[in-house]
Amino acid sequence: MPQLGESVSEGTITKWLVKVGDVVKKDQAIVEIGTDKADSEMPAPSAGRIAEILVHEGDVVPVGGVLCKIDEKITTVMNTTPSPAMDPHASTQAAPNGPSYSKSATGGALASPAQRRAALDHDVNLADVRGTGEYGRITKDDVMRARGVEGVDLDAPPHTEPPSLLARAQEAPKAEPPPRTTPAAREVANLMNAPGAGGFVPPIPGKGFGAFKVPQYKPSPGDQVVPFTRRRRITADHMIYSKFSSPHVVTVAEIDLHKAAKLREENKDRYKKEGLSLTMLSFVVVAAARAIRETPTINARVLDDAYVIFKDVNIGVAVDSPDGLVVPVIRRADELGVRGIVRAIDDVAKRAKGGKITIDDLSGATFSVSNPGIKGNLFGGAIINQPNVGILRMGEIQKRVVVVEGPSGEDMMVIHPVMFMALSYDHRIVDGVAANAFLWRVTEIIEKAEFEV
Predict the structure, then answer these.
(1) What is the pLDDT of residues 13-55, one digit of tens each?
(2) d(CA 315, CA 290)
(3) C-alpha distance across the termini of the chain, in Å
């Protein structure tokens, strides 16, 4: 299992592209791997015949774990049939001298994201569950046995419970009220107290540490239940973690875009001939990169008992993709001018929309900029993209009456394009003085439109 991104410690095997006995070429894609960053294909490190596949689809494997074995001596197809023992889907134990995973790379229970979610939904502490799957992996049945119920389909829609479960529930004695801190809460607390998590223990949505529970869903005619995709689940978990771990504060600035808009109009056709789009987003990214250099605290992340201020200014720019919103990174943005930023944004946006974005493209952001697009709204406070401590969200551009100083120093009312911009920042390490200084400087740079285009 390769290191798929700087903060990635494990990956989920989503699909094998080869089977035992296949002969592969060097760099041929052999397996699809999913992480909390993105999905990617792993190439074969050498040519040869797939001799063994040691992990199954759905397994979570730590970085450095062995996925399969390639016999480099065989590089041509042989007319042999693999034995059942070499079938990647057969229920076998690890090969002799092979890896034995009893815990995940983070030291927690060895379970797939689906089983972790099921455990949270059913108040099961995975630390107390004995896994009966491959390498001690926790299965669906293991989770339900820990709950005291067997034969339940955890993949069924939330509003369709098997009759057998209802029958068992009616026959079973009434359970004691759950403790104030549930097993699920304890597991989340352990995760949140893990190295790098910041040490904060939040309540669990729908579970809580107190008495409040979300009412059970009751189906109504015409309702449509839409299962979470893997990408949507990752996004949801990220957003919940960010809101619980970072005390968000939002500050807003009003920006007169008269000079910037004029500069864009004068140069957009020239850029268009080169296949590039000179957008207001480009000016905002350039201004943010410059302002970060003057207010470096905004370019940081929180550690356990400290925080680190990054040397490089790597700005993540939120763009849409077929699988949902992604945040590819423009590296060393402060070293790029307007043209360099325009090229970088065009490149990542096209690859994101074409589904060709990579994990490296999405890793390493130290600050983020969000653009709601032409159908945006006045302004909004974005959720911080962890582990960043700040995100800048652009608002809708509207023409409004503003007051400016005339040639003789008198006040004049004119109509200019105006935009509100909101900075969300992590108040654990970013003080109001630093946040306001950063946003004030971004505003000044854009309003003066001192850009080389």
Answers:
(1) 888 999 999 999 988 889 988 876 667 888 899 999 999 999 9
(2) 11
(3) 44
**What are the structure tokens assigned to 66, written together?**
């062995």
Kindly state the tokens that stand for 210. 């107190």
Peptide bond into 387 cis (omega under 30): yes
56 noted as active-site residue: no
CB-based contacts of 4, cutoff 8 Å, min separation 6: 11, 33, 35, 37, 40, 63, 359
Please list the alpha-helical segments (H only) found in 86-162: 113-121, 140-147
- Counting other chains too, the contacts that 198-201 makes at CB distance below 8 Å and 24 or more residues apart are 198/245, 198/302, 198/304, 198/428, 199/304, 200/244, 200/245
Which H/E stretch holds residue 10? Answer: strand 10-16
Mark whether 431 is an active-site residue: yes
Selected catalytic residue, list 87, 312, 320, 431: 431
Beta strands in 81-125 (DSSP E): none
Distance CA 325, CA 430 (A): 26
Condensed to tens digits (0 to 9), the pLDDT of residues 367-421 reads: 999 987 777 788 889 999 999 999 999 999 999 999 998 888 899 999 999 999 9
Tally Cβ neighbours within 10 Å of residue 65. Answer: 18
- Residue 28, Cβ neighbours under 10 Å: how many? 14
CA distance 258 to 399: 10
DSSP string, 169-226: HHHSPPPPPPPSS-HHHHHHHHHHTSTTS-S--PPPTTT-SSS--PPPP---TT----
Q: Which of 87, 153, 312, 427 is catalytic?
A: 427
Hey, is 159 helix, strand or coil?
Answer: coil
- On whether the CB atoms of residues 323 and 229 are closer than 8 A, the answer is yes
- What CA–CA distances, in Å, run from 29 to 11, 33, 264, 346, 383? 16, 11, 43, 27, 35
User: Has this prediction a pTM greater than 0.85?
Assistant: no
Q: In the block, which residue shows the tokens 């807003």?
A: 252
Whole-number Å distance between alpha carbons of 318 and 371: 7
Cβ-contact 217, 160 below 8 angstroms: no
